[in-house]
Automatic annotation (TrEMBL), chains A, B:
It comes from the Archaea. It comes from Pyrodictium occultum. Keywords: Kinase, Transferase. Transmembrane segments: none annotated. InterPro entries: P-loop_NTPase (IPR027417). GO terms for molecular function: kinase activity. This is Dephospho-CoA kinase.
Length: 180, 180
């Protein structure tokens, strides 16, 4: 959910040298291609259009097409929104879903502090954006997550938990034969 | 989600002397009234029928009608399934939502070990039951939880976390004037 801290998780993965693919980047590129500013409402519209024009897995399929599978035993995909998208990646290999949770109150306060253009100015705007996110069945992906990281406390604690989980996944990942 | 351990949370609340209302009890009563065995598939059908006949908040409204609000500063409602149901309770007072999470793998193994009649015998049956649960928008309630308790480790750890949270909520709850 917005403001939960999932991009922090990705930043830890990047620091560890893991490839990170951001679902939203595909949407941002498509918005640029269509001559639209990357505001949250435009990005949301483009994400909807893509899914309408090319099917519910459109964004995931574009990311999947770019994944360099041999490059690393663990690859991070940031921002999966629906079970249909999860299934796209399951066709490529073993998928571990990680959800990052923070309470609505905490996420709202973070987004207010962050104050990026397009971040919600009021609780009502925030709730509306949450509902848009959930309309893609994001809630089901969260409910079925293999790992749930709670990000309510100090940021250092969350970074440590993220690093710990990624190290564990790396240790457990099968080593594919070169070129395999 | 089934097997996450939410009824353990309720049992901690009961031990602490807090009133606990179980949404499923209303459904079980209604099944009995209709002469049906309380199998998961029958209970699911009755829950669906109730929501179809009396609206999506039917079960919550029946529970809300029984809540004795003055009885305790904190009252636990076990088994809310949708945001519409959460809204019913918000009309009665301040609502704190608590989600209990365990990974699908952990929940499946627990349900297998528990082996109650109606518990899933295969991974496919388990996934199907998960999907039925999620069809009520349970995922959105989980995604928007005020507190997320992860129940992957030893049961004692979870019971301690549950007790800690309930004690905190009790400490924070406003004391209503007698009869208020």
């Amino acid at each position: 959910m917005p403001g939960s801290g999932k991009s922090l998780f990705s930043s830890v993965a990047r620091e560890m040298g893991l490839p990170v693919y951001v679902m939203g980047d595909v949407v941002r590129e498509e918005a640029r291609r269509r001559g639209l500013e990357p505001t949250p409402s435009n990005l949301n519209m483009v994400a909807r259009l893509l899914r309408k024009e090319e099917g519910p897995a459109a964004v995931a399929l574009r990311v999947a097409g770019r994944l360099e599978r041999g490059s690393s035993p663990v690859v991070v995909v940031d921002g999966v929104r629906s079970l249909v998208e999860v299934e796209v990646f399951q066709r490529l290999g073993r998928v571990i879903t990680v959800a990052v949770h923070a309470s609505p109150r905490t996420r709202f306060e973070r987004l207010r502090r962050r104050g990026r253009p397009g971040d919600p100015g009021s609780w009502e705007e925030f709730r509306e954006r949450d509902m848009t996110e959930l309309s893609f069945s994001l809630g089901s992906v969260i409910a079925l997550a293999d790992y749930m990281l709670v990000n309510e406390g100090p940021v250092e604690e969350f970074l440590k938990a993220a690093r710990g989980l990624l190290e564990r996944l790396l240790a457990e990942a099968p080593r594919e034969p070169p070129g395999g």
